[in-house]
Description:
The protein is an alpha/beta fold. The protein has two domains: 4-108, Tetrapyrrole methylase, N-terminal domain (Cobalt-precorrin-4 Transmethylase, domain 1); 115-219, 2-Layer Sandwich (Methyltransferase, Cobalt-precorrin-4 Transmethylase, Domain 2), CATH 3.30.950. The protein is built from eight helices and ten strands. Residues 11-12, 81, 83-85, 88-90, 113-115, 158-160, 184, 186-189, 214-216 line the site of S-adenosylmethionine. S-adenosylmethionine is lined by residues 11-12, 81, 83-85, 88-90, 113-115, 158-160, 184, 186-189, 214-216.
Amino acid sequence: MSKLYLVPTPIGNLRDITFRAVEVLGSVGLILAEDTRQARKLLNHYDINSPVQSHHKFNEHKSVEAICSKILTGTSVALISDAGTPGISDPGFLLIRKCIEKGIPVETLPGPVAFIPALVNSGIPCDRFCFEGFIPPKKGRNKRLSLLADERRTMILYESPFRLVRTLDDLAGSFGSDRKACVSRELTKIYEENIRGTLVSLAGYFREHAPKGEIVIIVAGKQD
Ligand code: SAM
């Protein structure tokens, strides 16, 4: 039976992809990609020739019905995002929910996601954690920060390099300056950097060394 596959793709290093992901991408009738040009780099690298169609946050509301019909009439479809696991701070959820509503089988392959290596590598407890993704840059920001102030689990945030220092400052303001944290930048890429310290020391470091690239922030939970 045809189905929807969610296929994680590398977060930097092109070799971080599973054999099965390559096999599935090569076998489906259609690959939905957030950015078709970005997808082509990966697909060409692995000599995958399945047709590719764009699927991103600006068209997914409109296209989910048509994609479901395609699967129901016999075409298996794979969804990929620009990097990592679809649905994790990336499009996917709407299509997955619609497929489930329509009784279409959904299969997610395990694979790359940015926050797991950042979490494990941080040296901050990884037995219990919560993923916050991007915290709102404006509206709702203070409320989110105050809700997190009592969180005891390790927290995971995605952030852009342009807002990193401001976010570290705001987290220090909400959680206290000596809260342990780690910033992972450019994971799996040539300039990978993992800086461990407190929220205040990290803010100081990145004031001195303007950050570039992609960033995950790991923050320790509140202690007794
Ligand atoms: N779907 C992706 C995943 O599975 O992690 C996340 C997509 S989200 C649009 C992009 C954000 O993920 C970046 O802004 C950054 O916070 C994080 N990210 C992605 N690749 C990364 C990398 N190589 N190093 C550090 N953070 C990364």
